[in-house]
Design a protein that fits this description.
- The structure is a single chain.
- The protein has eleven helices and six strands.
- The longest helix has 27 residues.
- It is an alpha+beta fold and 229 residues long.
- The relative contact order is 0.16.
- The strands form three sheets. A two-stranded antiparallel ribbon has the order 1-2.
């Protein structure tokens, strides 16, 4: 493991932040806990593509770039397995705005905060339209579908869509993946293992959590082995 999550303190902080956040905000929460932005508020206000890029980078550094994925064909219920290469999602600095309707309407990239607010709004679609269009008005409403398509493009790696062909019936299958949730699964698993190590060494030697976390992985493993004798 490398990158910010190679620090066990940051790993547990990322796990704790992710566990206490709604699924849509877990990527932003872990980015903040990993120290990649100044604070949690800054992570929530990052454009979705910029936040996803940090999530992807963190995943690649800490857990590798290849992620096995599974889905079910909606037509015949055949299981589909494929591998996502996260490194292919790193395509430079994401755009923050786009224009539609011949340049008459400017669309800005949505943020995690926008999605959180939309989740509690009476009309989520209207709220997101008002947030992502600068000077939202009748022109934006008239090209709402174009605005939505532009916002999806601006989301970049935050709106990953995988395409496959069902091995059972041959139908094309599409399904979306959230890089934040992919990272969360890895962080939760790694944090769970680390917490077991802390609990075992604390019980065996009376050490505090900070004392255990200051040990290298090799030393933690050695002390666990000694404690089991």
């Amino acid at each position: 493991m490398s990158g910010p999550l190679s620090d066990p303190v940051r790993l547990l902080a990322a796990w704790e932040s992710g566990a206490g956040s709604p699924p849509v905000a877990r990527g932003a929460a872990m980015v903040a806990a990993a120290g990649l932005v100044s604070d949690a508020g800054a992570a929530l206000d990052l454009p979705l593509a910029a936040c996803a890029a940090l999530v992807v980078r963190t995943h690649v550094e800490a857990f590798g770039g290849l992620v096995p994925c599974a889905a079910t064909c909606p037509g015949c219920a055949e299981p589909i397995e494929l591998t996502l290469d996260l490194t292919a999602l790193s395509d430079g600095e994401p755009a923050r705005t786009a224009t539609v309707a011949g340049g008459a309407v400017t669309v800005r990239a949505l943020t995690t905060r926008d999605l959180l607010d939309a989740a509690t709004a009476e009309d989520p679609r209207a709220l997101l339209l008002s947030r992502c269009v600068e000077g939202c008005g009748t022109a934006a409403a008239a090209v709402e579908d174009e605005v939505g398509a532009a916002a999806e493009r601006l989301a970049g790696a935050a709106a990953v869509v995988l395409r496959a062909v069902c091995p059972g019936c041959g139908s094309p299958v599409r399904f979306g993946l959230d890089p934040g949730l992919l990272l969360w699964e890895q962080v939760a698993t790694a944090a769970g293992r680390l917490l077991v190590e802390v609990a075992e060494l604390a019980a065996a030697y009376g050490w505090s959590e900070p004392e255990v976390l200051r040990l290298s992985p090799m030393r933690r493993a050695a002390y666990r082995e000694l404690a089991g004798r």
